[in-house]
Amino acid sequence: MTPTEKIWRNGTFIPWDEARIHVLSHVVSYASAVFEGIRCYRTPSGPAIFRLEEHVRRLLDSARICRMDAPYTPAELSAAIRELVRINRMEACYIRPIVLRGYGAVGVQPSNNPIEVYIACWEWGSYLGDGAAADGIDACVSSWNRMAPNTLPALAKSAANYMNSQLIKMEAVSNGYHEGIALDCSGLVSEGSGENLFVVRDGRILTPPLSCSLLDGITRNAVIELAKDLGIPIEEAAIPREMLYIADEVFLTGTAAEITPVRSVDHIRVGAGRRGPVTEKLQAEFLGIVTGSRPDVHGWLTRVT
After folding, report:
1. Which CATH number fits domain 6-122: 3.90.1640.10, 1.10.486.10, 3.90.650.10, 3.30.470.10?
2. Residue 227: partners with Cβ closer than 8 Å, 6 or more residues away
3. Does pLDDT of 125 surpass 80?
4. How is 278-289 classified by DSSP, letter by letter?
5. Which of 46, 78, 99, 227 is the most exposed place for a label (fewest CB within 10 A)?
């Protein structure tokens, strides 16, 4: 990671190296934080943030689910994010807002701990490796399931949930894969460690419903809209594990991953073992919009300058 000049903390801009918390902050022991990942793209009209308002809304929704009273309005956070990108003179970057419980009482009950908000940004390229968008990645079905609905709230993008993600990712990488795919507590396909999942079969796209313990992905939502724009049949449906082995195409979506094809699952080749035509068509449409080479018909981009 290459540091940028400034980080936003509780309403003011501070030097990167001063963005510190006490080791006994509630978040350190109890993972009491929610966060977002947002991309800002380089376009001919200057830097533009992808679906800023939707990301800010999900951040505050996550905080609400976790009973954290974030002390800023959506408009204030959106303005802070735009100003941070400007101050750091970024043409393209990844943006990370974090709402956390800070230093106060030490114990599970967090009512006496202050709520703090940080926003950072930095340069970040391909999440799943150079060439992944064209060549695809190798994935495995993880031995770790996603959280059951009555354990941790999957709709909250919370730090606590990402220990589950870490276990999925570490297991996959240690076994020679790029990514792991988790099943839900019923044994149905849920999502990757940090991405939503889609399968293509006979020209039709399927993606698991939110009831399968997955995050309501903002890029996932964009892909659903783009598929409709392109006239590609798409629906939310329960996906059994074996569907991954007989799919014509499998791809992952997320802010970091964007749209990344999966070329094999559990050493079983997906389709032709490379990016398929549906995935490629969606990639071209998505990247065309976010980089400004195609019309932003959905109003997804927020200009920074």
Report:
1. 3.30.470.10
2. 205, 233, 234, 282
3. no
4. HHHHHHHHHHHH
5. 46
Q: Which residues are catalytic?
A: 157
Helix (H, G, I), strand (E, B) or coil at 93: strand
Please report, as a single letter, which amino acid is at residue 22. Answer: H
Residues 137-149, mean pLDDT to the nearest whole number: 97
Q: What 3-state class would DSSP assign to 223?
A: helix
Whether the model pTM is above 0.70:
yes
Characterize the bridge pairing of strands 234-236 and 204-207: parallel
Instruction: For residue 226, give the amino acid letter.
Output: L
Contact by Cβ (8 Å): 44, 292: yes
| Tokens 């695809």, located at residue | 136
- pLDDT bin (cut points 50, 70, 90) of residue 1 is confident
The predicted structure's pLDDT at residue 36? 98
Rounded CA separation 182/215 (Å)? 12
Domain made up of 132-290: CATH architecture: Alpha-Beta Barrel (3.20)
